[in-house]
Amino acid sequence: MYMSRELCAAASASEAVIMRDASSAYLAGGTELLRSGTERSADRLIMLKNIPELKGVSGETPEAVRIGSMTTFQEALGSDLVPAYLKEALRYMASRTKRDMATIGGNVALMRDDSYLAATLIAAHAKLELLHWAKPDSGESVQDRFGCPDKNGSDLEEASQVRGDQPVREAICIRRYLQHREEYQKDLITAIMVRTDICVVSKRYANTAESHSYLTAAMGYADGRFRVGVSLKNAGVFFPKEFSDSLGEDENAETFARFANSWAGLDIPDDLYGSTAYKRYLLGVTLENLYRSLKERISSGQRTDGRKGETEA
Ligand SMILES: Cc1cc2nc3c(=O)[nH]c(=O)nc-3n(C[C@H](O)[C@H](O)[C@H](O)COP(=O)(O)OP(=O)(O)OC[C@H]3O[C@@H](n4cnc5c(N)ncnc54)[C@H](O)[C@@H]3O)c2cc1C
Predict the structure, then answer these.
(1) What's the Cα-to-Cα distance from 47 to each of 74, 76, 245, 312, rounded to whole Å?
(2) Which Gene3D superfamilies match (predicted)?
(3) What domains does the chain contain, in order, with CATH numbers?
(4) What pLDDT digit, counting tens, does each position of 3-59 carry?
């Protein structure tokens, strides 16, 4: 088992990003990083729990909600602002104990092939707020130059500002994060932005509620366009853009079966979760069902997520 050797507490988001180097990792709820046998650990963990700006849920505009990355699954389920489609995905984490600890930012950063949230966030066209520390004058890390970890985060921040380095904030679409994981590896996810003026439906398959899922699929409808997100165990997390763009308002079963059987670039393994043929079949019928359910809601005038979803204490 790999153990982390040092724990640093960051007091602000910019302090956290300046502490982050190749041998460290951000520590959120710790359900992955601190679990026995994890392969994700690092020499130094940068604790995020004391950073106020990473916490809380706020209604940015009537159409969008900002969820701080340190918001736990359970806190999000307890918010009236979080749309019902996201609550549905949050409940895929069946263990209440884990929901009390695990954060939304930690889940997005992991982007596992059995992710609870990835398919839904992709279909919902969610955006991520990211923070990184720009070092325009050299490729050298701030830690190398200033001798972290002997210096604390505030010293580093001050030193970097004197040299003209800047914290850079960026908002990107979750699909971009998925496609360019390497580029964003050291970035701190500060928040997830989700829309409330859209319709999203999802479906997760697992042997038991607490087992890893072997397929999670989601479909969203926004601005007259359909969007599909898929997580497949031992295959990855996907956004089939061409297929999503091709969907119109009058598709039939054939469309989805054809797509699932011929999706180029999707290598579905034959494993304990099921044969390749079975998983392709399941993907086709699941997408068809999601499409039908979206269409029903659209035709009954529910184009936005008017359902608030049950709020949990
Ligand atoms: C028994 C068990 C079963 C699990 N099953 C599933 C499953 O089916 N599906 C699933 O998706 N997950 C699963 N997990 C993994 C994990 O519980 C969740 O993904 C959880 O949401 C991670 O959040 P956390 O806050 O605990 O992250 P942490 O463990 O603290 O961190 C996870 C990773 O995210 C990085 N990170 C955390 N916060 C940020 C941030 N704000 N910005 C950038 N990087 C960050 C960390 O550096 C680390 O690499 C399981 C874990 C256990 C122990």
Answers:
(1) 20, 20, 40, 27
(2) 3.30.465.10
(3) 51-197 (3.30.465.10), 199-303 (3.30.390.50)
(4) 667 999 999 999 999 999 999 999 999 999 998 888 887 899 999 999 999 999 999
